[in-house]
Design goal:
The chain is built from six helices and four strands. By secondary structure, the chain is α+β, with helices and mostly antiparallel strands. It folds into two domains: 62 residues; 107 residues, no CATH class. Helix 1 packs antiparallel against helix 2. 22% of the residues are buried.
């Protein structure tokens, strides 16, 4: 609804500007009546509308990767480290959905949908982002098996400020 409202607002400004310009100068053609400041505002208004449309499309695609309630409860019960849920990471050519992500001081552990090859490409993507953030000594492991993931996160230490920083980085690169 927000996206539709933003596009309608821009279109309304364009039409209003054309009508006002044509009313002020009846000799001008409709094509020339676009030469006004409201047209500039309408064009600039399309930018947030387009951004909202892109977000809506991405959220619609990511909706099928939401974290199941049972998994959420399991992770909350066994994990002492910093945890986050329902991340959708995008790289240049593919996306990497994460049902859950747990961060310790030097590890990023995640449960992903997909096969092992996609999980390893996701690991590489996260490592690349962490290197850019000067966090090159972090181990990244994405699991495709829920049982193995739960077993591993049950052995994680308590959350610290460092682990929270890693989780914030994952949040920043996710939609």
């Amino acid at each position: 609804m927000k996206t539709l409202l933003l596009f309608c607002l821009s279109l309304g400004m364009l039409i209003l500007g054309m009508v006002i310009t044509k009313h002020q100068n009846p000799d001008i053609t409709w094509a020339k009546s676009r030469n006004n400041l409201l047209t500039v505002a309408a064009v600039l208004g399309v930018l947030p509308a387009a951004r909202s449309l892109i977000s809506a499309i991405m959220f619609e695609r990511a909706k099928k990767y939401s974290c199941p309630e049972a998994l959420y409860k399991k992770v909350c019960d066994v994990c002492k480290a910093s945890a986050g849920f329902e991340f959708f990471l995008t790289a240049y050519k593919e996306e990497f959905p994460l049902y859950a992500c747990v961060c310790t001081d030097n590890e990023v552990l995640g449960l992903t949908a997909g096969d092992e090859k996609k999980a390893s490409r996701g690991e590489e993507h996260i490592k690349t982002v962490l290197k850019k953030e000067a966090k090159s000594n972090v181990v990244v492991k994405l699991y495709t098996d829920e049982k193995a993931f739960i077993d591993r996160i049950s052995k994680t230490p308590e959350a610290t400020e460092k682990s929270d920083e890693l989780l914030i980085i994952i949040c920043q690169i996710s939609i």
